Model the fold of this input.
Amino acid sequence: METKKCQLKNVERNIEDTKHIIADLKKTLNPEMCRCFVDAFLTRKQNLEESENKESHYHDDNLVYSVINLFAAGTDTTGNTLQWCLLFIAKYPHIQERVQEELSRVVGSRRVRVEDRKNLPYTDAVLHEVQRMANVVPMAIPHKTSRDVTYQGYFIKESEWESPHSWIRQGKFIRRDAFMPFLAGRRVCLGESLARMELFLFFTSLLQRFRFTPPPGVTEDELELTPVVGFLLTPSLHELCAVSRP
Done:
């Protein structure tokens, strides 16, 4: 119950912050100069109001939730996942070393390309494992049944993962039906392919250039993996050192 209250409070705060941003953009709106999505929405809304269109979906509530959805479903989720990636590899330096060894061997010093992913099986597995362990968007749909159950011809296991709290063991990602960081069916994330590409390119580019460690005086064991609860599960506040690689 306390977790749910905390989530709702953070969602309400997010709505208020978004309303303030939109209000500021309204004050400086110039229909002849589009600066962002909000400007485009407001200009379209203004044009429809001038034509006395009363059946439009272009109203303030829709704008607020559209902006929130764009941040939550895109920028925020990808950014949060990258934060989790850096926290996990700083906590488990042997994982980081294997990723960097693979990158050096396969890619070298050139810029990483999307097509490199198929030749970087361990790096790919680590990215998937971070998404599974971090569980960035836990409230999208129910994820667990209290017992094995058959529903409308589908058998649903209570526990799908043999060791759900253990870090990656194998060096190659093996996709399983239970792995659904982008949901499935009609509610599947429309930006899945973009998010997968962004996560891969950002993560590998960072690992090519830097080694991430706890700050002086802090051990790997002291890095806390308990998330901050909101609509998303974000890492708790940490300081990490980014050390340039030779």
User: Anything to note?
Assistant: The mean pLDDT is 82. Residues 60-91 form the longest helix (32 residues). Residues 59-140+167-244 form a domain with the Cytochrome p450 fold (CATH 1.10.630.10). The longest strand covers residues 210-213.
